[in-house]
Amino acid sequence: MRILIIGDSCTDKFVYGECNRICPEAPVPVFNPIKTTTNEGMAKNVFNNLKSLAPDLNIDFISNLNQMVKTRLVDIKTNQMLLRIDDNDSCDRYTGLDTLEFYDIIIISDYDKGFLHEDDIKFLVDRSQLSFVDSKKIFGEWANNASFIKINEPEYEKNKESFTNFKGQLIVTLGEKGVKWGELTYPPSRQAEVSDLSGAGDTFFAGFILEYLKSESIVKSINFAQDCSLKAVEKKGVVIIK
User: Fold this and answer.
1) pTM of this structure
2) Residues 6+ apart with CB under 8 A from 55
3) Given its phi and psi angles, is residue 36 left (phi above 0), alpha (psi -120 to 50 degrees) or beta?
4) Which DSSP state fits 143?
5) Residue 102, Cβ neighbours under 10 Å: how many?
6) How far is CA 133 from the centre of its chain?
7) Cβ–Cβ under 8 Å, residues 88 and 68
8) Helix (H, G, I), strand (E, B), or coil: what is residue 113?
9) What are the pLDDT digits (tens) for 47-106?
């Protein structure tokens, strides 16, 4: 079984520090950095979680070469994010689709930064036996042949009309309320003490895919993915689940 993960990636940078006073020149907090952590984010976070959960899987990974960086300034005491700075917030389009070998499974993690266009995603899902799509684009006919689309609730509300002719399975994440599939909602197994939401959607996506490849049960996949994302949100920063 050959698997391809393709999509745009970034470096997630977390600068933790203290805010103990207000700037005298303007009504903003003065941030004193204490420590910095970095993680691989977006599509690379999906890849890293899948490889951590299932190291024996045969997975190829294709992503952008230029490095996008998301820098978050975070209060070290409360874990409250004060500011996010996005550097190099776009990337060149991938031009190697015509040279790709056959893959049994295609996983598309598209943050709409330019790496994949709509036609590229259509090309991929139309030529795969099993495809999983997580995209920040406004959906259209280009995604109708995907096997699964994972989307969060706010994005689903913007895309409702786009799924009229969608032939696959739509998985809608609802945050603390759980996950909706079809007419049913599946609540999480427990309530999490949320520390950081960064990267939780990628963790859910990886967990869902892994369990589906093992069991072919959508319900089991939803429940396993929710347990994975609960572990992620209870930790600071972007984390890899084991």
Assistant:
1) 0.93
2) none
3) beta
4) G
5) 9
6) 10
7) yes
8) coil
9) 999 999 999 999 999 999 988 999 999 999 999 999 999 999 999 999 999 999 889 999
